[in-house]
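Figure 2 data, in text form.
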Amino acid sequence: MPTYITTAGFKLLKDEFEHLKSVERPKVVNEVAEAAAQGDRSENAEYIYGKRRLREIDRRMRFLNKSFGDMQVIDPATPRGDRIFFGATVTLYDEEQDGEIVYQIVGPLDVLDDKHISYQSPVGQALLGKSVDESVVIRTPKEVRHVTICEVEYI
């Protein structure tokens, strides 16, 4: 099953991969080589830290490279009507907080913050497929929320 990601999220991950490959990794390899040239590696903090950092970079690059093959990039600006699908920007009225909340439904590898939620999260799952003026009960591990969908946009 593919992992959906926005075009912006995909670009960020590609840029991160290229930065790790062309800037970070060569820099750390050079630092490790310089540290190794200083002699005793068992007590050389720069060498030990550099090798650890190199493993972290390689692990992240492998993860990203593998993830790229499973990703399906979707442009959130593609209109899909008034139903909530991946990429939708949704305005909700939260009855408990007596106010509006705006979320964009994105992928788990996109940047997730207070304005973006994963389609795989409890909130994202509860909203998918719903349309304007529907009331939705959102069950999360911490709470149960009652919201009404005010607006669905694809921007």
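Caption note: The chain has a mean pLDDT of 94.
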